Amino acid sequence: MRRTASQPLLRHFLGDDEFDEHLKPFRDVDPLTKQLSCISLPKRDSRKSCEEFWCEKYGAWRQEQRSGAAKLKKQLKARWAIQKLIDEQLGRYKAHYRRSMGPTKMSDVAELLMPKWAPPHEAAAVFWLGDWRPSTVLELLRSIARSLDVWDPVGVERALSHLINDVRNEEAVIDEEMIEVQSNCVLHLPFGPAQNDTNWPGLPQLRSEFRKVHRVIVKAQNLRIKALEMVVKKVLSQSDAAEFLVAYMGIQDVINEITAKFKSRNAVLLPLKNS
């Protein structure tokens, strides 16, 4: 045992026997063990608890991240599903408009201009060269945009105004082309009794004019596709585009139903009036 400066003084006050008895426990302790016992080390269990605490905190954070990512994934899937439905609905309109773009017979041109499936009152109100006038559809969107609660009303109104102006200009160009075709028909076609002879001299010119009419119809159909695509893909957000397509289809159904009922009511009343 190492002797300290305080031991003689302690021996003086305690006496030899009592002093030896006081130091006995310290003599039995190994010096290295005594030195180590004075060093305060963190317990292994405490260190493990700390690690577990931080692991739990990190685990909870990771779980929150997983939950958030799962919600985002679900919303993304919903967006993809909505976009797929929008594209499918747009594809149906395109397919409908493009039916008239292929090769046609002269007898088909009149059907394209005034389709039999359209009630006369509907055709007179909203039709232009065989289907709804594109600018009418855009004006319809402008009128229902407030009820759609669009995400950017000012931006949508500005974009719609610009698009309507462009579409009307294109409609005017197509109208001018159609007027020119009609003028040529009036001025140059040999009108008279119906000719069934395939050798009739005026037949080639008649076919030429019908081809011109068909080209005008194709331009009108392309303009309809362009206007609808611009609205759905450029002007409106995804959710607004979906609401517009639903509203547009509903309005078409209502107008068609009303005009069809009006036509059928007139069909019933006419015989009664004649009688």
UniProtKB/TrEMBL annotation:
GO biological process, one term: DNA-templated transcription
Gene Ontology molecular functions: sequence-specific DNA binding
InterPro entries (alphabetical): OCM_Kinase, TGA_domain
Every DOG1 domain range: 51-265
Any Pfam family the entry gives: DOG1
Domain of life: Eukaryota
PANTHER family reported for this sequence: OS06G0639500 PROTEIN, SEED DORMANCY CONTROL PROTEIN
Protein name: DOG1 domain-containing protein
Source organism of the structure: Salvia splendens (Scarlet sage)
